[in-house]
Amino acid sequence: MKISKLMTTPVVLPSSALVLACLFFLSHGTAWAHGAEEHGEDASEQAGEAPRHAEEAPERALTNTMCPVLTDEAVDPDISVVYQGKKVYLCCAKYRRLFLQDPEAYLANLPQFAAMATNDKAKEEHGDGHEKGEAEEHDHESGHGGTAGLLKLPGKFHPLLVHFPIALILVAALAELLRMITRRPFFSETSRFLVYVAALSALFTVATGWIAGAGAVYPGELSQTLFLHRLLGTGAGVLILLTAGLGLLVRLGGTKHERKYRMVLFLAALAVGVTGHLGATLVYGTNYFGL
């Protein structure tokens, strides 16, 4: 009896321990597997979110996603201008030109200028609640504003007048070139007549150009273009007047001035062409020659 007990006791104890160990690993192993599974799902979700954030990053980099001119059209990231130190994206080159002509008209459609537009509106709403004396002073200032508007009125004729000296001086240069080729005096007389008329029109064109430029505001790159346009336009006007003076000397019999007349005439034609190109850049943008 004692011998049988001694023989069975060592067998029972290890067997019981083995059963308990299996039950322990089965219960905890399921929990560990479930936890690892959840961890794997979280990792895959995070990995899936990373590309989405990467895709959204370029969109967030744009200061505005909709065109301020054509407000229901998405912008083209390659078409933009810098206005008051902030980048403005537009949908196409056409509306880029329209924006540059009058940026203030579209600021309310741009989120990067929303605070500025709100402040301006608040000033307009609350800036006129004054007493009678201040109202009279305001009327007095408005009268001066009307006078300033009249002074700026001649500048509005610059786009009309500018075509005359451009066309006249270029045709005069062509006529003088034909005179050199054919030796016919008719072309020389035609050239001088055109130069006289060009000189007269250049006086009004340069004057109205300076008046128009005084109130013009162009952003970024176009401000330098405006400066060059005004500078070269004035220089071209001086060259045209000098050409007209030399033409008078040639007409009065001073053939020794004929070579000088031609040189200054061709130089004036070149200056007019470059000035006209800069003027077109102000209207149509820097890439209006782009194909």
What is the topological layout?
Blueprint: H1 2-61, E1 80-83, E2 86-89, H2 93-101, H3 114-126, H4 132-152, H5 158-161, H6 163-182, H7 185-214, H8 221-251, H9 258-284
Helix pairs in contact: 6-7, 6-9, 7-8, 8-9
Keywords:
single chain; 291 residues; mainly alpha; Four Helix Bundle (Hemerythrin (Met), subunit A); 3 domains; two-stranded antiparallel sheet; 9 helices; 2 strands; 3% strand; disordered N terminus
Please characterize this protein's 3D structure.
The chain has 291 residues and is mainly α. It has 3 domains: 1-59; 62-126, no CATH class; 153-284, Four Helix Bundle (Hemerythrin (Met), subunit A), CATH 1.20.120. The chain is built from 9 helices and 2 strands; from the N terminus they run H-E-E-H-H-H-H-H-H-H-H. The protein has a two-stranded antiparallel sheet. A hairpin with a 2-residue loop joins strand 1 and strand 2. It starts with a helix and ends in a 7-residue tail after the last helix.
Please give the number of β-strands: 2
Shape: elongated
Instruction: Please tell me the CATH architecture of the largest domain by its name.
Output: Up-down Bundle
- Structural category is mainly alpha
Terminal residue distance: 111 Å
H/E order of the elements? HEEHHHHHHHH
Number of domains: 3
Q: Total helix count?
A: 9
Helix content: over 70%
CATH topology of the largest domain: Four Helix Bundle (Hemerythrin (Met), subunit A)
How would you write the strand order of the largest sheet? Answer: 1-2
Radius of gyration: 40 Å
Low-confidence stretches: 1-20, 28-59, 129-145
CATH class of the largest domain: Mainly Alpha
Strand coverage percent:
under 5%
Biggest sheet details: 2 strands, antiparallel
Mean pLDDT: 76
